[in-house]
Design a protein that fits this description.
30% helix, 138 residues, single chain, alpha/beta, two-stranded parallel sheet
């Protein structure tokens, strides 16, 4: 049963892999844990997480992960933004709010279908490096 988070805070839904063993999941866990440790963030926002793929390990393997497990499948009252970081990418517009896409790409120019999809439905693209930023800009 989903946890309903009722507050006057704006909602942020983080969509991606969390409790699996690969780099995107590691990045998702560490970024969301950092946000939850930031008092300025938690004063303004409620964070929910939505798994892209089924977990392959239990959140209990690390005490820090309990904070994330409590936010799995949360229903956020005032969802303002969905942050999506997963592979393969999903460019679909969220039902509510804006879409921020984290999508590393290190293989030359972007696939053309990505460029069109991003232009049509993504509000912001977040990238991990200046090199990836330049790839998107070009």
């Amino acid at each position: 049963m989903p946890l309903r988070i009722a507050s006057n805070k704006q909602g942020v839904l983080w969509n991606g892999s969390f409790f699996v063993h690969h780099s995107l999941a590691l990045v998702n866990r560490e970024l969301t844990l950092a946000l939850l440790d930031d008092a300025a963030f938690t004063a303004r926002f409620d964070l929910g997480i939505a798994h892209y793929e089924p977990p392959t390990f239990d959140a209990g393997v690390d005490a820090r992960f309990a904070a994330l497990a409590k936010r799995e499948n949360a229903v956020l009252d005032d969802l303002k933004v969905t942050v999506r970081h997963r592979w393969p990418p999903d460019f679909a517009e969220p039902k509510t709010g804006k879409l921020a896409l984290i999508q590393p790409w290190e293989f030359g120019s972007l696939p053309r279908v990505w460029v069109q999809s991003i232009a049509e439905s993504v509000d912001e693209v977040w990238v991990p490096s200046t090199w990836v930023r330049e790839t998107y800009v070009q």
